[in-house]
């Protein structure tokens, strides 16, 4: 498994080993021992999620506030997304910076997003099955988010103009400038 730390400390791109043969291919989507050895952090993933979306959907930018903050290991089972993680950790020298990366069932890349980040993705293929492991259970009351089309962040979600599909909750979310940094 190849692991690369992004410009945002603690946020890593993982490329699991793919074992191809005449039948197709095999990969370990998560191995605690290898993850801990390569990343230097032992996650306590307690919840697995899966969402299915069609082209143009933008889910996010969400997080859960402490003590329910979640880290996530995200990847795509089918299709392609642009995945975005925004550093909103209080005191981080990359506060407000984000990374965006294409995750797909072609490149089999994964992204580990630590606690204190906003997370979201846009769907670039006709359909996507998006899977992720969460450290920390879902806790609705501590859910928090900003509008994914926020002008300050100005994220290019790579969706044709006017084709964005965003939930009412996300459309009505606050702007980045109204955000309080997250004290972990
Ligand atoms: C996140 C979550 C949601 N739900 C229920 C609550 C709603 O009735 C329904 C849809 O929830 P929501 O619209 O918040 O789903 P997404 O917009 O995909 O939210 C996710 O979007 C971005 C990409 C994330 O990283 C988060 O994991 C998560 O916030 O599922 C649950 O029952 N458990 C959960 O863990």
UniProtKB/TrEMBL annotation:
Protein EC: 5.1.3.13
Broad class of enzyme this protein falls into: isomerase
UniProt-listed GO biological process terms: dTDP-rhamnose biosynthetic process; polysaccharide biosynthetic process
Highest rank taxon of the organism: Bacteria
GO molecular function annotations of the record: dTDP-4-dehydrorhamnose 3,5-epimerase activity
The keyword Isomerase is assigned to this record: yes
Reaction catalysed by this enzyme: dTDP-4-dehydro-6-deoxy-alpha-D-glucose = dTDP-4-dehydro-beta-L-rhamnose
Active site, UniProt feature: 62 (proton acceptor), 132 (proton donor)
Annotated site (Participates in a stacking interaction with the thymidine ring of dTDP-4-oxo-6-deoxyglucose): 138
Cited Pfam families: dTDP_sugar_isom
One cellular-component annotation, GO: cytosol
Keywords: Isomerase
InterPro entries for this protein: RmlC-like, RmlC-like_jellyroll, RmlC_Cupin_sf
Metabolic or biological pathway: Carbohydrate biosynthesis; dTDP-L-rhamnose biosynthesis
Family the entry assigns: Belongs to the dTDP-4-dehydrorhamnose 3,5-epimerase family.
PANTHER family: DTDP-6-DEOXY-D-GLUCOSE-3,5 EPIMERASE, THYMIDINE DIPHOSPHO-4-KETO-RHAMNOSE 3,5-EPIMERASE
Function summary: Catalyzes the epimerization of the C3' and C5'positions of dTDP-6-deoxy-D-xylo-4-hexulose, forming dTDP-6-deoxy-L-lyxo-4-hexulose.
Subunit-structure text: Homodimer.
Designated name of the protein: dTDP-4-dehydrorhamnose 3,5-epimerase
Source species of the chain: Apibacter adventoris
